[in-house]
Amino acid sequence: MTTATGQDSFHWPAGKQAAISISLDDARPSQVDAGLPVLDRYGIRATFYLSPSNIPLRQDIWRDAVARGHEMGNHTLTHPCSGNFPWSLANALEDMTLADIETEMERSDEVIEQLVGIRPRSFAYPCGQKFVGRGQHLSSYIPVAGRRYMACRGFRDEAVNNPQYCDLAQVMGVDSDDHPFNYLKAWVDRAIAERGWLVFCSHDVGSFPRQAITVENLGRLCELCVEPEMGIWVNTIAEVAAYIQRHRAARAE
């Protein structure tokens, strides 16, 4: 049977209708202080894209989270973005080369492994930006990231990932910060309708003026995702990507 998304023979585990991954960026303290207790209450394993400079603020808790099955991913060492952001002007992607950005990934992998005891399997593009250089010398660093990691996540994208078609080197990520719960539920409903993989992206957890999902909304989202009638497989980005890879390999045989 062929669906509207062309998924003629793709099946999620245990008869599930869709997959959802919850991810959070920057290793902000509120993620472990307010977010982890909610995730653990519902038995949901999330993906955390760590900024190494923030890890020491809650290092022991991050290590405990690894032991409970949460994924720790790479978010570069210094979070370079466009110099159009004033805070990134001295660390701008426009002034970097492909070698520079790969060094960022390599050094971040090493520090994360040293601090939390696990080497990242997935990567999140800082601010969703995927290019270094400028003008005629502009280069996408998607191939660099895709070569190093099982999956690489974007940010503020506009679609659910089609598991039969999506490029795992640029998995689409939907912003879940600063939105009402009905907005999040609409995305969940869309993922189920398309039998796809929805990846949520947040930053802080709690009552912050911006870049945050409230504790209440995170809890309601988790409760929705584990409701048996919803038919959702909730897992980390690396685990969902690994399942998709295995499925594609089996079809190619």
Give the SSE map.
Elements: E1 18-25, H1 29-41, E2 47-50, H2 59-67, E3 71-74, H3 98-116, E4 122-124, E5 131-132, E6 139-140, H4 142-148, E7 151-153, E8 174-175, H5 181-194, E9 197-202, E10 204-205, E11 212-213, H6 215-226, E12 232-234, H7 237-252
Parallel strand pairs: 1-2, 1-9, 1-12, 2-3, 4-7, 8-9, 10-11
Antiparallel strand pairs: 5-6
Helix pairs in contact: 1-6, 5-6
Please summarize what this structure is.
This protein is an alpha/beta fold and 253 residues long. 36% of the residues lie in helices and 16% in strands. The chain has one domain (13-252): Glycoside hydrolase/deacetylase (TIM Barrel), CATH 3.20.20.370.
Describe the overall structure.
This protein has one domain: TIM Barrel (Alpha-Beta Barrel), CATH 3.20.20.370. It is built from seven helices and twelve strands. Strands 1, 2, 3, 8, 9 and 12 form a six-stranded parallel β-sheet that branches. A two-stranded parallel ribbon has the order 4-7. The chain has a two-stranded antiparallel sheet with strand order 5-6. It is α/β, with parallel strands linked by helices. α1 packs parallel to α6 and α5 runs parallel beside α6.
